[in-house]
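User: Batch of two.

Assistant: Item 1 of 2:
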Amino acid sequence: MDFIAPDTWGSAIYLWIVPMVLGDAIFPPIPSEMVVITGGALAADGHANFWLILLLAAFASWLGDMAVYLLFKRRVSHVLDRWAWGRKVHRGIHEAIAKAGRSSTYGAIIGARFVPGGRLTTSSAAGIANVSVRGFSLCAGLGAVLWAVWQVGLGYFTGSTTKLPFWASSLIGVGVGLVIGVVVGLIVTRRRGNRSPVDEPFDGDVPQPE
């Protein structure tokens, strides 16, 4: 099997998008953007369906946001504190919220996903702040569509303009997206706090059984 052959990736990309984008909602280091941008580059070469890639990316983004939001809205996030890795994730969420501030406004729910780690921060903060399910769902859906259009479009644009192999176009697209995301993130997080502005308790400092 040739792992850089477009036919190989074209048949597998659909299986990767949903789990990668879903996982990114909870664990931001997962490179979901790379997978979606690669899908766009493959579509530019005619090895993937542009609209199907777009639909899968948007749906997975919305579903992941809703899962995180409901987890914190139902106050069951303390389940994370049963394991060492969960406490690290939970503490990281509060640290991210401390940097970005309370991100429960509808505009932040839509736009913060373009900033690295923004999905996790806004979804968890919105759940803690008891933003309405309907309001969050609509904003998360709109944000998911805009994010998918941007990511898939970025891959498609680089693929169709550079005429390079899909993997090279994907790397260029990821680089451009990362630079833009970092710049936006620096602008958004200029006013950083020292502690999370949300009042949700967690057991991150209390030893727990492994």
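Item 2 of 2:
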Amino acid sequence: MLMTALLTTLALASGNPAAFELSCEYSDKTDEGVFNNAEHCAREENGGIVFNPEYLRRMQFGDDGLAPAGVAGNWRWVRQDGRSVAVLTYDNSPDEFEEGLSRGRRPEGMAYYDKQLNLALATSYAWAEPFSGGLAAVCSHCVIVPEPGGEHSMVVGGDWGAIDRQGRLVLPLRPDADSLRRELKAARAR
């Protein structure tokens, strides 16, 4: 029993491909940042993703210390130490950082993560847009509907409002998204 546990630990630490059942897409620094698909790149563990050290070393990290990786149908931002967080997919890549925050989903609603991949703000909203001018449009009870062809989605229905960086509702919820957008534009201009 002890020998089996020791062998398993050694296999995981060495990046043994059998220990990493998930494939991933990542930007490879040895291939000038071209996105490559790799088998045995990661595994799920305790509700998170652990990257094979071999592929983690090959990832191209930006000046902010982060690299994009697609794993199990989700885009993630990955730190050099292997810590990662799943974020929204935007134009076939991970959600970009706007005002230092990237958006992701949690069971309770939308969330914002900082560049250290810490949870900066958790919301109960079904949808949240990027921050701009310290404000973000949010929607309660809206639905995300794929557009014909399946490449993009639309957010429809619900009640729309705006939050500040502390998550406080600063423009009240209303069913008219267009009136919110006008009011939000004016608030950002002030």
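The mean pLDDT is 89.
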